[in-house]
Amino acid sequence: ALAVPGGTDLPPKKRLDAKKKLARAIEKRFPEAKLFPLSAEPESLLLLRHLAAQRQRRLAFRARRAHLLAYAADFVPGPESPLVGTLKVSGFVRGQALSVNSLVHIVGHGDFQMSQVEAPPDPLSLNPRVVKGQKRSQDMDIQDDSLNGADEMEEDVKVLMKADASKQESLQSEVVPDPMEGEQTWPTDEELREAEASLKANRKVVKVPKGTSKYQAAWIVDEEEDAEEDDDEEEEDDDMDDLMEEAASQEEEGSEKEEELAEEECETMTVSEGVRDEHYDEKMEEDEEQMLERYKQERMDEMFPDEVDTPRDVPARVRFQKYRGLKSFRTSPWDPKENLPRDYARIFQFQDFSRTRKHIFRQIEKEEAEGASVGWYVTLHICNVPASVMESFRDGRPLVLFTLLPHEQKV
């Protein structure tokens, strides 16, 4: 039901336009909604008749779980901390029978365990009981009356169920992973043989002193290879010397001409040292090259998102050594649990999730859970609840509770 106040304040000519605009706005969210003007008493009677004729739709999540709207609540601080304690919530059971061993979810606050379920007197009973001695207590003093009232409340409250530690659902929502149980891919015998064969093929005969181990021999450079490397280095040094001499001579000639022109055309002025940056152009060129290279990579990733080019400066076997080659994505064996992130180990695993789900729903339909039946007025003792829940209820916010199915709190 949607109430829009202030409709009678509008002129009669604008009421029809306002009603049409309101109908368009509501139709987006509620296509089958009907508008009832409440400007007169007969129109309000039509609205009440329409509400009385409506049928409540059956919601699966609500029908399979016991739920309760708090009629009254009380908070008892715990012995360790006043911020955490036992929350006593009273209300009428709806949906399914309520078991004390199941977990309860307080909407907006989290999951909790219950310690016991009580059956206090129904405050909205159609046939209230006449308590003997109630008339007598009216004639007694105020102190005696309050004491007798407290005794009567204690006598009337019955404990329906207490939690059984062996049957109670756990609050554990994640698996505590064992770091020593991580799977590791071990090379096969064929891979070991191929690695040994590749090492034998790369072996060469080198002259070494007596008593040298294989590890030390691997670091000894052959004389022929050393001589070739020295010759190459000497040739490169000679070429560099020639280039340096030519560049120096050209710089000297150019500097003399520039000095003559500068003396004729330029004037003397003071310049701060910060302006003279010899490497400014070099930095600009490096930044531009990096930006161009980054743009090329982003462009290639956008054009070919599932392709990787073989690098030219690195061998392909080195570049892709962390990858595994598959002959066929369809037929090659692949372990789906291999090399998963560590956070995946905290997730509970079901052998068949849909089968487990159907089995639990079938049990709910066949078996009647022990505890408070639908329609009973009960008081739930909920353990380890923060005091903020009670503060929220005192501020006028509704307190709604739902019992959870087995394994429903697990991730």
UniProtKB/TrEMBL annotation:
Entry superkingdom: Eukaryota
GO BP annotations of the record are: endonucleolytic cleavage of tricistronic rRNA transcript (SSU-rRNA, 5.8S rRNA, LSU-rRNA); maturation of SSU-rRNA from tricistronic rRNA transcript (SSU-rRNA, 5.8S rRNA, LSU-rRNA)
Q: Name one Pfam family in it.
A: AARP2CN
Region annotation Disordered: residue ranges?
119-146, 164-190, 217-271
Residues forming the AARP2CN domain are 43-124
Role noted for this protein: Required during maturation of the 40S ribosomal subunit in the nucleolus.
Q: Which PANTHER family match?
A: PRE-RRNA-PROCESSING PROTEIN TSR1 HOMOLOG, RIBOSOME BIOGENESIS PROTEIN
Q: Which family does it belong to?
A: Belongs to the TRAFAC class translation factor GTPase superfamily. Bms1-like GTPase family. TSR1 subfamily.
Protein name, UniProt field: Pre-rRNA-processing protein TSR1 homolog
